[in-house]
Amino acid sequence: MIILAIESSCDETAVSITRDGREVLADEIFSQVDIHAVYGGVVPEIASRNHIQVITRLADSALQKAGIGRREIDAVAVTYAPGLIGALLVGVNFAKSLSAALNVPLIPVHHIRGHIAANYIAYPNLEPPFLCLVISGGHSQIIDVRSYTEMAVIGTSRDDAAGECFDKVARVLDLGYPGGAALDKLAIGGDDTKYPLPRATIADSPYDMSFSGLKTAVLNLVHNAAQKGVKLDRPALAASFSAAVSDTLVPRTLKAAGELGRSRVAIAGGVAANSRIRGDFEKAAARDNITLYVPPLRLCGDNAGMIGCQGYYEYLAGTRADAALNAYATLGI
Hints:
single chain; Nucleotidyltransferase, domain 5; 2 domains; 10 helices; 18% strand
């Protein structure tokens, strides 16, 4: 089954051609990083306008690279939630028009389900059930993947997402936007014990997380040092911060896997590209005899291939949409 998929939930415009939920024939991505870097973050209106400008070209390019004609498309899949509402609407309306023009089914796909499906691309033999930690700029969730379309959130952040904290800390350290990769590079070789930072726990919800206190602690440390004229050990601070985030994510995820009886654990999302988190997961999984699935860096960020692959399983489950499909800024998985 050939699916043309569209992803436009934030500042990447992406169009892919996928086959049977596992094979990506083409995945075209237009990144707006350089456009938004001057503002220190994504400007929703600018993101939406750029989606409009490039989405048709990307669709044509994806078809050409895949060697697929328009009439060979069996369905159109699109991210409809969650994300920036204006950005989502560009993709949703393009998908609705394309579905109507080609007279093929329209498949709505939840963005977080798409991130989980990125592991199906990287690991063709991976099948549910398994546990997945999704960590991105807007989400930090431990999800029990019971089937391709049945999922339950086991733990989530009560406030900030891990990715948001990485960007805020990178900004205060003048590392630019996006800051995750720069902060990861800075942390290499740094003393991760030099700056004691908090690891929040929530008494009544052992799998839930909180990152706002950690973010505030780093910001206060940096500001206090500036006011006192004290020079910070920037690599050590970056390493200490990365360790605190990892210590919040890794033990919770593996504890949940053990209590749920899951012997397979996957991670997904943009923050899954962080080397400290990947390394800590590899060590902990080996210790606990857990099979770990970590997507390559190219599949951690937003892409349409993951939407097309999840769209295939949504289609098999009977998920369909029509011209009334709307976009939603927030929506549970």
